[in-house]
Amino acid sequence: MSVPARTLENPTAASRVDSFALRHALAQFPQGIVAVGAEVDGAPEAIIASTFTVGVSLDPPLVTLAVQHNSSTWPKLERSGGELGISVLGRDQNGLCRQIASKDRANRFTGVDYQLQGSALLLDGVPMWLRTRIYNQVRAGDHDIVVLEILDLGFTEGAAGLVFHQHEFKTLTSLS
C-alpha cells in the first residue's frame, strides 16, 4: 500500500491522520513481542503486547508498555499485587504467542511452562524476562502508558527474538 506523504512545504495537507493509513505506516517499524503476566486470584493471566519499550531509564531501571483501554485482562493484571512478569518472546514462540493472545481464555495456559516469582508470571524458554512492578501510569489517547520498574531480570545471550513487522510475526536473522 502506498500512501501519499505530506511534504514540508504543505504540512497541513491532512489535518487528521487516517487511522487505517497510520496502522499501515507504523507496521513498517519492527517491534518486539512480550507477554505481560501475573497470577491473579490463583490463576495465570497475561496479555501479549508489541508496545513494549526498553531503555527508558537506567536509574531507576524503567521500561514502558502501552495498554489499550478496552483490554479485559489489564485490569486483572493491575490488581495482581503489584508485580508483573515481562517475557520477551523468542524465534520459535509464535504458537505460544497466539495461544496466550487467544480469546479462548480457558485454554490460554494449557501446556504452557511458566514460573512465578511473587505474583509475576514468567514464561520458560524466553530470550529475556523481567520481574517488574508498576511505577507510574499515564493516560494517552486510547491507551495507558504504564511505566514499570525492573526488580530482577534474566536473559540468554544471543537468543533470537520474535518481532511483529508489517502485520506479521517474523524472526530476526543476522546479516553476516
Automatic annotation (TrEMBL):
The lineage of its organism: Bacteria, Bacillati, Actinomycetota, Actinomycetes, Micrococcales. It comes from Nesterenkonia jeotgali. InterPro entries: Flavin_Rdtase-like_dom, NADH-dep_flavin_reductase, Split_barrel_FMN-bd. GO terms for molecular function: FMN binding; riboflavin reductase (NADPH) activity. Keywords: Oxidoreductase. It holds the Pfam family Flavin_Reduct. Residues 26-171 form the Flavin reductase like domain. It comes from the Bacteria. The keyword Zinc does not apply. This is Oxidoreductase. Belongs to the non-flavoprotein flavin reductase family.
